[in-house]
Amino acid sequence: MSIAQAAAKAMLSDALLQEGPGITRINHLELELPLDKVIKFVSVGLPLMLVCMAFAREISLGPQISCFPPSNFTIKQASYVDTYCWDSLMHHEFDSHGNFEERSLWVHKMFPYSLLAMAVLMYLPALIWRQLVMPSLASDLLFVIDELDKSYNRSIRLAQSILDMRQNTKNPLTFQAELQR
Questions:
Q1: CA-CA distance, 179 to 172, in Å (whole number)?
Q2: pTM above 0.70, yes or no
Q3: How far apart (Å, rounded) are the C-alpha atoms in residues 65 and 89?
Q4: DSSP conformation letters of 61-109
Q5: How do residues 67-126 score in pLDDT, each as one tens digit?
Q6: Which of 4, 25, 65, 67 is the most exposed place for a label (fewest CB within 10 A)?
Q7: Residues near 101 by Cβ (< 8 Å), separated by ≥ 6?
Q8: Contacts (Cβ under 8 Å, ≥6 apart) of 144
C-alpha cells in the first residue's frame, strides 16, 4: 500500500470515526511492502527450514559420520574414534593421474551452520528497517496524517459554516459580501 493511500485512508476513516481505547494509530500504518514480506519469508525461512531438516536428520538418524571402529573397542573408544573422524573429516581419492590426494570435507559438515548464518544475514535488513527506520517514518507519517486530518476537519467546518450562512441570509448580495470578507 502506498503512503498516499494510507494517508487518504487514515484521513477519511480516522476523521469520521473515534479511536478505540486500546487501538493506536501506528498499528494502522503499513510500512512494509507485501513483496518485501514475501522476500523476507523466503530468504529467511528457506535456510532455516533446511537447517531444521539437517538437524532433525542428525537427531533422528544419529551421527551421519561413523568410522566403523573395531568390535573390540569400548563405547568410549568408539565415540572417540567417531569424534576424531568428525574433526579430521577428509576424503581420500586418486586423481586422474593416479596420485593419491586428500580433500577436506569441512564445507559439508559446516553447511547447516552456514545456512543459519545466511538466514541471520538475510534478516538483518528487515531488522534494521523495523528497529531504526520504522519508528521515525511512522512518527513522520502520523504527523502528516494528523495535519491532513486537521485540514480536512477545518475544510468541513468552513463548508458547513458557508452553508449555514447561505441558509440564514435572505439576500444573495449579503451572502456574496460575507463570502468576500
A1: 11
A2: no
A3: 9
A4: H--S------TTS-HHHHHHHHHHHHHT-EEEEE-TTS-EEEEE-HHHH
A5: 777 888 888 988 888 777 777 777 667 778 888 887 777 777 788 889 999 999 999 999
A6: 4
A7: 92, 93, 94, 95
A8: 7
Q: What is the pLDDT of residues 17-32, one digit of tens each?
A: 445 554 555 566 788 8
Distance (Å, whole) CA 148 – CA 136: 18
Distance CA(64)–CA(55), nearest Å, equals 11
CA gap 35, 39 in Å, rounded: 6
Q: pLDDT tens digit string along 119-168?
A: 999 999 999 988 998 888 888 888 888 898 889 888 888 888 888 888 88
Is the separation of the CB atoms in 27 and 14 below 8 Å?
no
| DSSP tag of 170 | S
Place of cell 513522520: 140
Residue 145 burial by CB count (10 A; 0-12/13-18/19+): exposed, middle or buried? Answer: buried
Among residues 119, 116, 123, 128, the alpha carbon closest in space to that of 37 is found at 123
- Pick the closest to residue 14 from 138, 135, 146, 139 (CA basis): 146
Angle formed by the axes of helices 172-180 and 134-168, nearest 10°: 150
Contact 105, 91 (CB under 8 A): yes
